[in-house]
Specification:
The chain has about 475 residues and is of the alpha/beta class. Helix content is about 35%, strand content about 20%. It has 14 helices and 19 strands. A six-stranded parallel sheet has the order 2-1-3-4-5-6, sandwiched between helices. Helix 5 (about 120-125) links the parallel strand 4 (about 105-110) and strand 5. Helix 10 (about 275-285) packs parallel to helix 12 and helix 13 (about 345-360) packs parallel to helix 14. The longest helix has 24 residues, at about 385-410. The structure holds S-adenosyl-L-homocysteine (SAH), iron/sulfur cluster and FE3-S4 cluster (F3S). S-adenosyl-L-homocysteine (SAH) binds next to strand 13.
Length: about 475
């Protein structure tokens, strides 16, 4: 598709602003102060989307509540990545029949990745008749218009056409107060890893203009945000669709020039598109955190092939080796899937051995979950769940021991952290993060939140470090 067709015209965005105003006026004329309950599931991209949806709701005159019972509108911004994620949402939808019975005027909205699945939309249409509005991620910017339709027609509205997806700039946003902010730099995914639903629900890869990204980061830094994460399903293919020869390392270099005291990080990176130049740029740019989330999924080349990942164990290890050669203190994390259809025990143990060989600081581990509509869901999957669970538990044991060992290596050292909030631990009431994004629980006073500090690490376990300001 041509760029002009992808970028949502300013006139369309202005039209959506008009619908926001109409809804606001409707509530004002009734003397109502509407409340919305917004719940987001899934990844940071979805969290970032949720903040835009809240921005639009705020413009429509809504304030926010945690209590679905008192809400005039309940919005579930959903995730489809694993079956469990979907079950949770159906559970929540079921519970909402009660609040709707008590308050028939309540509007229930289902959006996000699950909403884009035909199978889900069909089930909601037939069996969850209390849901008023269903739309997928590509229709997010049209939320005001869709909601207006619900209020005006009093009918159910579904907007779930399979779309390439656009880029909508200038949408309002409600961010968390504090020090962390998310910035989507691109949307969609073209990779079609055989197990993954994302390309089917988030449309094709499309990159925001660098000028728009730079302006947003500058604004965030000026507003006092200090830990900014750039988001994309595969940030390493940023710019490929722009045909300007401007790629992700160029964007990082330009962001790094923005003055201020802040860290910028990014996720996720696909190993097939990670380059030595990316690591060189990370190493030389002081604002770019020396932290890398590089999902490898499997340590076995046959399984990687079946997953359509387009790299090998060997090339993955070379990337890590190079990255560490230019950034000796690099914190590395990854995602892993155990029990891909047809994976043998020996192949799963190749994944464990890769984990041992690399020595990840932390790992996000998943048991394969079949997603209807993906290629892998069609493959024979003879290994019983209990067997996969055993491999998975072994992997966790190996990783937990390694995380604990790496964390123990911090004890006695002084590291720079950003204090980002309170912790639930009474003895260490503050939570903070290292440049590598490791959690440090701190002794100290709330007034330190938002500050960079040098802290001495005094203790550790598998999950966290403990420290005191020096
Ligand atoms: N775009 C990111 C991944 C987003 S999904 C990337 O490619 O790195 C986050 C993680 O969920 C994936 O890395 C994968 O490990 C896991 N995942 C995706 N689909 C899955 C499935 N069907 N079953 C189990 N885990 C899955
Ligand atoms: Fe899914 Fe692969 Fe795209 Fe990541 S790169 S979102 S795992 S298809
Ligand atoms: Fe889930 Fe969609 Fe993110 S499927 S992991 S919310 S892209």
């Amino acid at each position: 598709m041509k760029r002009e067709e992808i970028v949502v015209p300013e006139g369309e965005i202005a039209r959506q602003r008009d619908f926001q105003k109409k809804i606001r006026t409707m509530f004002q004329s009734r003397g109502a102060h509407p409340l919305a309950r917004v719940e987001t599931f899934g990844c940071q991209q979805n969290v970032a989307d949720g903040q835009r949806l809240m921005g639009m709701l705020e413009e429509m005159g809504f304030a926010f509540t945690e209590d679905a019972g008192e809400a005039n509108l309940v919005l579930l911004n959903t995730c489809a990545i694993r079956e469990h994620a979907e079950q949770r949402v159906f559970g929540n939808l079921g519970i909402l029949t009660h609040s709707k019975k008590e308050n028939p005027e309540q509007v229930i909205v289902l959006c996000g990745c699950m909403a884009q699945e035909e199978r889900v939309a069909k089930r909601v249409r037939e069996s969850y008749r209390h849901v008023d509005l269903v739309f997928g991620p590509q229709a997010l910017w049209r939320f005001p218009e869709l909601l207006w339709q619900v209020y005006e027609t009093k009918k159910r509205v579904f907007s779930i056409a399979d779309e390439h997806g656009g880029i909508a700039e200038g949408l309002p946003v409600v961010r968390e107060r504090g020090v962390k902010a998310w910035v989507s730099i691109m949307y969609g995914c073209n990779n079609f890893c055989s197990y993954c639903i994302v390309p089917y629900v988030r449309g094709r890869e499309r990159s925001r203009e660098s000028a728009a990204v730079l302006a947003e980061v500058r604004e965030l830094v000026e507003a006092g945000y200090k830990d900014i994460t750039l988001l994309g399903q595969n940030v390493n293919s940023y710019g490929n669709d722009l045909d300007t020869g401007y790629h992700f390392p160029d964007l990082l270099e330009d962001i790094d020039k923005i003055p201020g005291d802040y860290w910028v990080r990014f996720m996720s990176s696909h190993p097939k598109d990670a380059t030595p130049r990316l690591f060189d740029v990370m190493a030389k740019c002081p604002h770019v955190a020396e932290q890398l989330h590089l999902p490898f999924q499997s340590g076995n080349d046959r399984v990687l092939g079946e997953m359509n990942r387009r790299y090998t164990r060997g090339t993955y290890l070379e990337l890590i080796h190079y990255a560490r050669s230019v950034m000796p203190g690099l914190v590395v994390t990854s995602d892993v899937i155990i029990g891909f259809p047809g994976e043998t025990e020996a192949e799963a143990m190749d994944t464990v051995s890769l984990v041992e060989e690399v020595g990840f600081d932390a790992l996000f581990t998943f048991i394969y979950s079949p997603r209807p509509g993906t290629k892998a869901a069609e493959l024979p999957d003879p290994v019983p769940r209990e067997e996969k669970q055993k491999w998975f538990d072994h992997l966790l044991e190996v990783q937990n021991a390694r995380s604990a060992e790496i964390h123990a290596g911090y004890v006695g050292k002084t590291v720079r952290v950003l204090v980002d909030g309170e912790s639930e631990d009474g003895d260490y009431p503050l939570s903070s993060r290292t440049e590598g994004n490791r959690l440090v629980r701190l002794k100290g006073d709330k007034s330190l939140i938002g500050r960079f500090l040098d802290v001495k690490i005094t203790g550790s376990n598998t999950w966290a470090l403990y420290g005191e300001a020096v």
